[in-house]
Design a protein that fits this description.
By secondary structure, the chain is mainly α. The chain has helices spanning 18-37, 42-57, 70-81, 91-105, 121-128, 154-159, 177-183. Helix 2 (42-57) runs antiparallel to helix 4 (91-105).
Amino acid sequence: MSEPADAPVILSDEPGSFPWSVLAERHPALVRKVRDAFPYGPEQHRALDALLKNATEGVIEPLGERAADREQWERWGGEEYAGRSWFDVPFLWSESYFYRQLLEAVGYFTPGPWKGIDPFRPFKLAELSAPEADESSPRSTRSPSGRPRSGGGAAARLAVGQPRGPRLPSRRRGRGIGHRRRTGRQRR
């Protein structure tokens, strides 16, 4: 039996393709969104602006000398890809490296007020508290009583560090007084 062929490497150099649109459209929008989500200082604004320009018009630059994971990224292709267009290297690598550079730009790894602060947290929380994220009813945005669901199921509680509470009987399962009132039937 012969060895399976390696999957083809996906690049972002074809205008209109999904990988190209991620680098050319999605990443710039994401940089702007992150920039506006927090009261970053001038240093972070400059770094985000530089990343935006570099990622769309420039070439891949190595991490700074003091970056703790610099050697790791060099082994993963950083040495080979440095100096090349973001669009001319494997898409998955360039996207991963973009996020690493974005974290660097906002000061995630360096001592200061932004160290360890997730720049995507506001967006994650908003998505987790959306009605569509309610684990008890993934398809419905309305409760049995017809009111909009508030969202914020277990996934949202865990994302914000709230412990899981005790499992209580759910009115959504047809238990309790609410069930009798809604259906007009008595339990036996």
